[in-house]
Each structure stands twice: as structure tokens, then as C-alpha cells.
Design goal:
single chain; about 80 residues; alpha+beta; five-stranded antiparallel sheet; 5 strands
């Protein structure tokens, strides 16, 4: 069974160290901020100009979700 969450690292402007958020199920951005939705539906907001590092696991989760929605395996180039 495929894990459907992934970790995200981010560093807000002016901060020295990255924070790691685990069990991220979805992420996105608006014109004012970025957001992460966790497995337990908690939303985390942080500044748009934060540095963000996504792991390879994120792409695997997105591909798996797309395959499930389409009903056929989706292959990414």
C-alpha cells in the first residue's frame, strides 16, 4: 500500500533553520501565503516568500492520486 503523505521542509524569511512538517497530504498557495494540509486536516499557513523543499515522495503521492482519480495508471515522464 502506498503512503499518501509526504514531508515538507520550509524556512520563513529571516529564519536560520528549516522546519520539517510530516504527514502533509496536500499543499498549495494563494497570492498572499502558502499552505499545507496535514493528514488530520490541520492547515498550516506560512509566508509566500518562504523557502520550501519538497521531497521525491510528494511527486509519488501526486502520481498515485492522479492514477486513482483517472482509474488507470498515470506515468510521469
Amino acid at each position: 500500500m502506498m503512503k499518501e503523505t509526504y514531508p515538507v521542509k520550509y524556512r520563513s524569511p529571516g529564519r536560520r533553520f528549516f522546519k520539517t512538517v510530516k504527514n502533509v497530504k496536500e499543499d498549495g498557495m494563494t497570492d498572499k501565503f502558502r499552505w499545507l494540509r496535514l493528514e488530520n486536516d490541520i492547515l498550516i499557513h506560512f509566508p509566500m516568500d518562504s523557502e520550501v523543499i519538497f521531497t521525491e515522495e510528494r511527486q509519488a503521492v501526486i502520481t498515485h492520486q492522479m492514477s486513482r482519480e483517472a482509474g488507470i495508471p498515470v506515468q510521469r515522464a
